[in-house]
Design brief:
With 86 residues, this protein is mainly α. The longest helix is centred in the middle third of the chain and has 16 residues.
Length: 86
């Protein structure tokens, strides 16, 4: 989950995590056929950078998104099912 969240900081949509269920903590990356080689190379480079970062950088990611890391337990127990304007 930490790697998927950190990829958001590099401008990539977070990949699906924990799938397939038979592989513990697997990350499923499925680029579309329309992705360019340059985009795929940039994604691979971002993955290499993430593996070299300090663990606390990963655990606190994402850092550049409007919402950092929501409380997933609270979100599951008390979901907000409609949007309220400010």
């Amino acid at each position: 989950m930490d790697i998927a969240k950190r990829l958001l900081d590099y401008g990539f949509h977070a990949p699906t995590v924990y799938f397939p269920l038979i592989v513990k903590e697997a990350v499923m990356i499925e680029p579309t056929e329309t992705e360019s080689k340059a985009t795929l190379d940039a994604f691979a480079e971002a993955l290499f950078r993430v593996t070299e970062e300090a663990p606390e950088t990963l655990h606190d990611a994402p850092h550049t998104t409007p919402i950092s890391r929501p409380d997933e337990v609270q979100a599951a127990r008390q979901p907000v099912l409609r949007w309220k304007g400010q």
